[in-house]
């Protein structure tokens, strides 16, 4: 079966079939439906190789992550994000080219390879860094790109933006409202812009509440770092020891909650815990995790839509997603006062 067979059965031209199958304008809705129905009846699908040659397109999107592969498997954000990307790409008969690399230079080399071999039409750029070289580098390569968040340098392409700082601030306000005054924070990698912004939001929220600076511990978004940071915080003597800890992601929060419970620290009776992401596991740990929810799947969908609009039509505009929201569950409560039972 060929496109000519589909056109003949539907009673239209080959060009009209192409427009309908590629979801392009210029086809009446009824005609489009008839063409798609005929294609299904004939079980006909266009050859991706032929499409690429005809339209000078790879019909693929690149996503390169400079993270350890084991972290990609453990962090629930990226599977949900990639799911959103795939949902959009499958509807357009396009593919995702995913590469996991170890460091900045291997990531830049991966972009060189993708651009040089014309393997992708554009790329999604995650984990923006301080002074990030990638937007300028991709512009020099002529490779269309969309960033998750806005880089701190010159704008060089569209961005999909989500305000998670307001969610972090709401988490601190929630803890202050419960009566907590010693609120610690376990941060993400300092070189990542979104990790810095969450840390800044925590600091400013404490200042607005009139509270002294809280204890800050570094993390890297892994469960191991969340557990180690929690152990260090619980080793502090009063008055430095926190009654609540906010973590930069849910994975560290769940690991930190587990570390506290292994030491016999009651959550939330003696330690309140909040994460960020609202990963699926957050609902099922004990107690259920209070968290700052952001929809990773929607990020993936919107980033793909924005990138394909840039590739297809040259549309270069940012998209603002709904801001992150605090979801209160069972891991937060008022702190125990001196003399109260454990």
Characterization of this structure:
The chain has helices spanning 3-10, 14-21, 29-41, 48-55, 69-74, 77-91, 104-116, 134-141, 165-178, 193-208, 223-234, 250-262, 296-313, and strands spanning 60-66, 95-101, 122-125, 145-148, 159-161, 183-186, 216-217, 244-247, 272-277, 290-293, 319-320, 325-327. It has 342 residues and is α/β, with parallel strands linked by helices. It has a domain at 165-294: Rossmann fold, CATH 3.40.50. Helix 11 (223-234) packs across helix 12 (250-262). The radius of gyration is 24 Å and the shape is elongated. The model is unreliable at 48-55 (pLDDT under 50).
Please write out the topology.
Layout: H1 3-10, H2 14-21, H3 29-41, H4 48-55, E1 60-66, H5 69-74, H6 77-91, E2 95-101, H7 104-116, E3 122-125, H8 134-141, E4 145-148, E5 159-161, H9 165-178, E6 183-186, H10 193-208, E7 216-217, H11 223-234, E8 244-247, H12 250-262, E9 272-277, E10 290-293, H13 296-313, E11 319-320, E12 325-327
Parallel strand pairs: 1-2, 1-3, 3-4, 4-5, 5-11, 6-7, 6-8, 8-9, 9-10
Antiparallel strand pairs: 10-12
Helix pairs in contact: 1-2, 1-3, 6-13, 7-8, 9-10, 11-12
Examine the secondary-structure arrangement and name the CATH architecture of the domain at 165-294.
3-Layer(aba) Sandwich
CATH superfamily of the domain at 165-294: Response regulator
Strand content: 5-15%
Question: Low-confidence parts, pLDDT < 50 over ≥5 residues?
Answer: 48-55
| Global morphology | elongated
Mean model confidence by pLDDT: 89
Strand order of the largest sheet: 2-1-3-4-5-11
CATH-derived topology of the domain at 165-294? Rossmann fold
Distance between the termini: 74 Å
DSSP strand tally: 12
């Amino acid at each position: 079966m060929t496109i000519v067979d589909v056109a003949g059965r539907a009673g239209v031209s080959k060009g009209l079939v192409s427009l309908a199958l590629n979801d392009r304008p210029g086809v009446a809705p009824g005609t489009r439906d008839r063409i798609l129905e005929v294609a299904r009846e004939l079980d006909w699908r266009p050859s991706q190789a032929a499409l690429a040659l005809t339209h000078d397109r790879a019909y693929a999107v690149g996503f390169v992550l400079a993270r350890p592969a084991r972290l990609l498997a453990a962090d629930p954000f990226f599977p949900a994000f990639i799911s959103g990307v795939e949902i959009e790409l499958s509807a357009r008969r396009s593919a995702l080219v995913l590469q996991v690399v170890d460091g900045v230079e291997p990531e830049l080399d991966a972009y060189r390879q993708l651009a040089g071999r014309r393997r992708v039409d554009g790329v999604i750029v995650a984990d923006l860094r301080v002074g990030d070289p990638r937007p300028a580098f991709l512009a020099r390569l002529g490779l269309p790109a969309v960033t998750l968040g806005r880089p701190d340098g010159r704008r060089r392409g569209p961005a999909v933006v989500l305000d998670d700082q307001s969610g972090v601030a709401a988490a601190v306000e929630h803890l202050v409202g419960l009566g907590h005054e010693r609120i610690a924070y376990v941060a993400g990698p300092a070189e990542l812009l979104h990790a810095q912004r969450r840390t800044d939001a925590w600091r400013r929220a404490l200042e607005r509440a009139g509270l002294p600076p809280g204890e800050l511990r570094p993390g890297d978004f892994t469960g191991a770092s969340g557990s180690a940071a929690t152990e260090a915080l619980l080793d502090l003597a009063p008055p430095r020891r926190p009654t609540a800890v906010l973590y930069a992601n849910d994975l560290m929060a769940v690991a930190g909650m587990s570390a506290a419970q292994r030491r016999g620290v009651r959550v939330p009776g003696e330690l309140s815990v909040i994460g960020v992401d609202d990963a699926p596991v957050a609902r099922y740990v004990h107690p259920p995790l209070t968290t700052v929810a952001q929809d990773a799947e929607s990020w993936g969908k919107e980033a793909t839509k924005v990138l394909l609009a840039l590739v297809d039509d040259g549309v270069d505009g940012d998209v603002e997603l709904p801001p992150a929201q605090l979801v209160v569950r069972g891991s937060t409560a008022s702190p125990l006062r001196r003399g109260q039972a454990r």
